[in-house]
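Open question from group meeting: does this chain pack into something compact, or does most of it stay loose? Before anyone orders reagents, we agreed to write out a predicted structure and look at it together. Recording both the input and the output here so the notebook holds the full record.
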Amino acid sequence: MKLTKTGGSLKSLSPLLDVHTHWGSTFTMVEHAIQCKSAYNTVLLDVGHYEFTLDTMALDHLQALKNLLQTFNFLTKTICTSKSYATINLTIITYNTLMETVVQFVHNESNIQDLPDLCHRV
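Structure tokens returned:
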């Protein structure tokens, strides 16, 4: 734990490495950004860049994106760590699960058009 100028404490975290897929990497980065939001905002406030801090809306978008990518990450790990080849049944179930997850995300995320701007901020 480290103390900040404002008297709070921040947990020390290190970069996460060795991610085998792009969405796994994005999932890990988004998850880490959510964990580091206090430190991130503290640093930005200390140097006067208020416009780049993560507000509640940005954190809600990050959480929604994390939830979406979590399914991709889990299914990729499941398939990649299998001791046998992926069967047609497993492939169909995986595909359907991913499609349902994306459709649900698009349906639930009313501000989806804001995500590209959010991604440039993080």
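Observations to bring back to the group:
The two ends are 23 Å apart (CA to CA).
The beta strands are 2-3, 9-10.
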